[in-house]
Amino acid sequence: MLELLRGVRVLDLTTVVLGPYATQIIGDFGADVIKVEPPAGDVFRSVRPGRSGRMGAGFLGCNRNKRSIVIDLRKAEGVEALMKLVETVDVVVHNMRPKSAAKLGFDFEACKARNPRIIYCYASGFGQDGPYADEPAYDDTIQAVSGVAWLNANADGEPRFMRTIIADKVGGLHLAMAVLAALGARGRAGASDEAICIEAPMFESLVSFLMVEQLGGMSFDPPLGSTGYERLNSPYRKPFATRDGYISIIPYTSAHWGRFLHLVGEDDLATDPIVTDPVQRSRNIGQLYAVIERCAPQRTTDEWIAVLRECDVPCSRVNQLADLFENEHLREVGMFEVTGHPTEGDVMTVRSPFRQVGTEPAPDRLAPVRGSDTRTLLEEAGLDGTAIDALILAGAVAEGELL
């Protein structure tokens, strides 16, 4: 982990993927992230494969650089224990509807009453000013309602979910940015010390992400066309079949296209205005991609990469996920590492993509066992051993070894 946020304390009441992915990013930057779990634990602990019931692959993937405390918020003593922690942190993060947070006793007003400088960020499924405010939200439902599933339709026009939890992860990135922006605002000279509350709804985050390029002709009033980005929506925009596999060939500039077309013997087309004029090229991109599709089977993937790199035309082989572990670039930058987990044995870890130039990162803290830090965290909040024992006896909190 980096140490850019060292000294920042974050109370993490998130669950599943969106919220934990956001707080993992914050933890990767060096914040002390305190993961609050109910007695049954984060439900994502059960996602398989896994060596034990403590945690599976999904949980390991989005909960590094955190400490875990178990609190039962159905008990008044548990809520009070949580509020003792609120008094000691800079940020509270959750990914539920505000009504649910209020019912459990940690809405913005309750947290602000205990910590007047609190930064409070949450990712509900839908913005709370709209008619969908109380609708449940999962990755699949947000992919559907946002237009992502439609945009990812197959050749028969049938909508499909992307094979990654894109809505959760895009939502998580927006939630992390909200926290970082609030921390940045707090650090400015002359900035207010008042509490800050930021909403980063999942639906709106994905729509904002999607429509950067897909707003298309609807960017203008009156419209100059329908939604969509012509280059992305061309049926010829795809990995191209070579003699022995698949490749991405993406001439982008006029120079790229000219060099590629000369390479494949299309000299007349290389000087045509639909290539040399960027506006005309944008309107005729499908025709140009069709040339690549026709030519690609003439060489093997390795042969294409050699000649395309020689003439500086962007390209890449199409990797399977399993190929990434042997990828020369990822190996050189140390993207994957086998590390010993204290309870789960050797696990493959994927490091944070960030690097602070000139500074060696500190070792990551691997995903915590449920409740492994309960006693330590309550002690840091000012409770003595007798008070902590009483909370454990009442079932308001739990330690890892007692679960």
Describe this structure as you would to a colleague.
With 403 residues, the chain is α/β, with parallel strands linked by helices. It folds into 2 domains: 9-209 and 333-402, Crotonobetainyl-coa:carnitine coa-transferase, domain 1 (Rossmann fold); 240-317, formyl-coa transferase, domain 3. 39% of the residues lie in helices and 13% in strands. The protein contains 19 helices and 12 strands. The strands form 3 sheets. Strands 6-5-4-1-2-3-12 form a 7-stranded mixed β-sheet, with helices on both faces. Strands 7-8-9 form a 3-stranded antiparallel β-sheet, with helices on one face. Helix 6 (139-146) packs parallel to helix 9 (202-214). The longest helix is centred in the middle third of the chain and has 21 residues, at 166-186. The radius of gyration is 25 Å and the shape is elongated. The model has no long low-confidence stretch (mean pLDDT 96).
Compact summary:
The protein is an alpha/beta fold.
Question: Top keywords for this entry?
Answer:
seven-stranded mixed sheet; 403 residues; 2 domains; formyl-coa transferase, domain 3; Rossmann fold; alpha/beta; elongated; single chain; three-stranded antiparallel sheet
What overall form do the CA principal axes indicate? elongated
Order of strands side by side in the largest beta sheet?
A: 6-5-4-1-2-3-12
Main sheet overview: 7 strands, mixed
CATH architecture of the largest domain: 3-Layer(aba) Sandwich
CATH class of the largest domain: Alpha Beta
In round numbers, the mean pLDDT is: 96
Q: What is the CA–CA distance across the termini?
A: 29 Å
CATH-derived topology of the largest domain: Rossmann fold
